[in-house]
Design goal:
Length: about 210
């Protein structure tokens, strides 16, 4: 519950982090984005909502540096997917055989359905879908996706993802209506990011009904 409270009230916690950690906060944020995209055991870490909230604090006094966030977190996203690809290529499907609380086969199936719909572009599209974002490069490694092609989509996806959400927070995060309803906006960001993951399931249900 405390973790959920932090996610929904990032606007209250980030100023405390800035004051407490100082410049080291950029390192911590780098590690969070790297882990959220690069380690299949941490799909629960905040991604879209965190980027939006960080963008909002690039326009306040003694806030965060916009370009430092854009560049460092884009690099973190690229490195995260790269590491995840090589983990998938090395370990393969063996990690899912134990059916642990982290390596659930349904996550793998969700990501595989993403690939069926989007093809290689999944590496870009999955950036905007929690959980799938973490497993997409892993599955790409398992499937032996051409590495050069993977790198291109990886870089494009990281740039689009980080720049879109941080700049959205930068330009809209401090509007009075957003500041008054920040937790609702965060709910909205999370909800929108879930659409690419939920839509294939809804589509399949509609097709079955027909």
């Amino acid at each position: 519950m405390e973790f959920i409270d932090i996610i929904l009230h990032l606007d209250q916690h980030i100023p405390t982090w800035i004051a407490f950690f100082g410049p080291w906060l950029y390192v911590i944020l780098f590690l969070i984005i790297f882990a959220e995209t690069g380690l299949v055991v941490t799909p629960f870490l905040p991604g879209d909502s965190l980027l939006f909230a960080l963008g909002a604090f690039t326009t306040v006094e003694n806030g965060l540096n916009l370009w430092l966030l854009l560049i460092s977190l884009t690099i973190a996203g690229i490195l995260g997917d790269t590491v995840n690809y090589h983990i998938g290529k090395t370990l393969g499907v063996k990690v899912f055989e134990s059916q642990s609380r982290f390596f659930k086969k349904e996550y793998l199936y969700q990501t595989q359905s993403f690939y069926e719909k989007w093809g290689p572009f999944t590496i870009v599209a999955a950036r905007f879908a929690p959980i799938v974002r973490t497993f997409a490069p892993f599955v790409a490694g398992i499937g032996g996706m051409n590495y050069r092609k993977f790198v291109v989509y990886n870089v494009v996806g990281a740039i689009l993802w980080v720049f879109l959400f941080i700049l959205a927070g930068h330009f809209f995060g401090n509007l009075p209506i957003v500041k008054r309803n920040f937790h609702i906006v965060i709910f909205g960001v999370i909800g929108v990011s879930l659409i690419p993951m939920v839509w294939p399931w809804i589509s399949s249900r509609v097709q079955r009904a027909r």
